[in-house]
Amino acid sequence: MQTVLTDSPAEAAAFLNQGELVAFPTETVYGLGADCRNDAAVSTIFTAKGRPSDNPLIVHISDPSRASLVAGDISPSAQLLMQRFFPGPLTVVLKKNDTVSPLVSAGLPTIGIRCPAHHRAREFLRLCHHPVAAPSANISGRPSSTDWQTVSHDLAGKIRCILKGEQSSIGVESTIVDCTGSKPVLLRTGAISRLDLENATGCMIADATRMTDEQPKSPGQKYQHYAPQAEVILYEHDTPPAVIPLKAGCISLGDPLPGCSITCRCHSLEEYAHHLFRFFRRCDISGAKAVYCELPPASGIGSALRDRLQRAAGHR
Ligand code: TXA
Ligand code: MG
């Protein structure tokens, strides 16, 4: 299949409305979209990515008011969170309604809903006839794509169209909050921190983001993620390790480790998030034998970074 690269949201939406897969930019990471009402199209998302079919997809809407197209019931906590953070880097999990295909929700009675803030994404979503089911636009297990070139590297020939945009400004996936119970539960960290969520809702938010052997609340949390090909070695600023391999990468807030030839020095947590996944890809292309990553402090988006880094390292 030939993959069309376009700058036109209208051209991209026309492909999606015909039942084709279309990758599109958002401020978190690029998404791989299909019409959420089209089972055949949704099932090709899983094939194109090599994604396990028990891992549900987030549904993307062009405007917060469209949440009721897929949600069965919008709980008071969800209402507060959507008022405060939609459009933006937040996904709320709600009870789904009957229009949502079980393929999208992987058989769960719930649905993840996100309204991105990205201008071109919203224009594209507005032109799509129905909400758009979309995971991150990468091969399963690989780092999420934060630029269209990486989407093309992973998926060209397997999908119909890539709607081009600039590099995703945030660089890590949305914060996910389960709002189906009496109290909201944090399922995945992102640019919106647990403290931000507590301030918006006025209640304590339980944290279910840790990997456990029990059934995770968010199916995707049980899979290893985000890994470059080389081994990922994490270190704290105060205890830098000795670098052994000849060709090593290092992403850091302070000076990069001596002996690393592929480096990315970040001046803030936001910059670290913006660069992380693209840096992993750069390490792959450069044939890095190891990738050293300084663990950032766990404040703000630092919690999301620590989560992604620990998953990339396979919790070593
Ligand atoms: O920023 C993002 O969220 C990006 C952009 C494209 O919107 N999307 C994204 O999708 O990261 P994906 O599929 O890579 O990650 C979605 C995560 C998975 O871990 C999945 O298990 C979880 O969301 N999820 C989806 N629906 C869920 C549900 N109903 N209940 C619990 N977890 C759910
Ligand atoms: Mg993903």
Output the keywords.
single chain, 316 residues, alpha/beta, twelve-stranded mixed sheet, four-stranded parallel sheet, 20% strand, globular, binds threonylcarbamoyladenylate, binds magnesium ion
Give an overview in words.
This protein is an alpha/beta fold. It is 28% helix and 20% strand. The protein is built from nine helices and 16 strands. The protein has helices spanning 9-17, 39-49, 76-85, 102-105, 119-127, 148-155, 194-201, 269-285, 302-312; strands spanning 4-6, 22-24, 31-35, 58-60, 71-73, 90-96, 110-114, 132-134, 161-163, 175-178, 185-188, 206-207, 231-235, 248-252, 262-265, 290-294. The strands form two sheets. Strands 1, 2, 3, 4, 5, 6, 7, 8, 9, 10, 11 and 12 form a twelve-stranded mixed β-sheet that branches. A four-stranded parallel β-sheet has the order 13-16-14-15, with helices on one face. A hairpin with a 6-residue loop joins β2 and β3. α1 crosses α5. 51% of the residues are buried. The model has no long low-confidence stretch (mean pLDDT 94). Magnesium ion binds at residues 135-136, 144. The site of threonylcarbamoyladenylate (TXA) has 27 residues, from β6 and β7.
